[in-house]
Design goal:
The chain is of the alpha+beta class and 247 residues long. The protein has helices spanning 3-6, 16-25, 112-117, 122-146, 151-166, 182-189, 193-205, 225-232, and strands at 29-33, 36-38, 53-66, 69-75, 80-81, 96-109, 167-169, 174-176, 209-212, 216-219, 240-241, 244-245. The chain contains eight helices and twelve strands.
Length: 247
């Protein structure tokens, strides 16, 4: 399959002339997986020469469990994952990682053949690297959200975050067309499912959100004021606290 035709944003740094050549020349194997637990063995992919799997369609969750607590990362079109990587077995704290496909996915395998084909366009390698780095920023964002006291605030902020990524602006509001069940949202924000259901009903009663069929959502009005205050808050440079450089 032609990767840049399925994910044009990957080639946004290429010139028009480069795109004409790369558009049909940058090929990768496409693999589809059904909904359910995603089991990836160490020999399923050539991890030594593989930039990752580029999600083209669908939705999946990466869950990391420590003790009785699970933190979930929601992944969708545009994300790059490397499921063959394992947390080291010699670590002191036991950790379990599971992958669950919420909606059937299609992925492009950015393996050895893909790496060889994009060698003449370093902009594409840089674009894939940015996708991987962006995930670390989003994970830090989710950690910050989980620190908010009110579940209503957590839900509203992550819903707007997903709207920025996968939403569509309509005359009614912003439509989030990915399957976000109460269980999925609870895992993402680190809350119990019954508490999430109560908070979602409260947000709907307040006119902030509207549930749609098949666990989709319509966001009404604008982003939460809490998020706007974060953007407006003055920030200290990294490593500076009250005018002193921290060690």
């Amino acid at each position: 399959m032609a990767v840049l035709q399925s994910d044009p944003d990957l080639g946004e740094d290429l010139s028009d002339d480069q795109l004409r050549v790369a558009g049909d020349g940058v090929l990768a194997e496409m693999v589809a997986y059904p909904a359910g637990r995603w089991q990836v063995g160490p020999d399923d992919f050539d991890g030594a020469a593989n930039l990752g799997l580029l999600l083209l369609e669908g939705l999946m969750i990466r869950g990391v469990t420590v003790g009785e607590y699970t933190c979930a990362e929601l992944l969708g079109p545009g994300d790059v994952v490397q499921p063959w990587l394992r947390i080291g077995p010699d670590q002191s704290v036991a950790t379990e990682v599971n992958w669950d496909v919420v909606e059937p996915i299609k992925v492009a395998v950015l393996g050895r053949g893909f790496v060889n084909r994009i060698a003449r366009w370093p902009e594409l390698s840089a674009a894939v690297s940015r996708r991987l780095m962006q995930r670390t920023h989003w994970l830090a964002f989710h950690l910050a959200v989980c620190g908010l006291r009110r579940i209503d605030d957590r839900l509203l902020i992550v819903l707007w975050h997903f709207a920025d990524r996968w939403g569509t602006v309509t005359p009614e509001g912003v439509r989030v067309d990915v399957r976000l069940t109460h269980e999925v949202l609870a895992a993402v924000i680190g809350a119990r499912r019954p508490s999430v259901t109560t908070a979602l009903n409260r947000l709907a009663d307040e006119g902030r959100i509207r549930p749609r069929p098949r666990s989709r959502w319509l966001l009404l009005g604008g982003p939460p004021e809490e998020l706007q205050r974060v953007h407006e808050r003055p920030r200290r440079p990294a490593g500076v606290t009250r005018g002193r450089l921290t060690p």
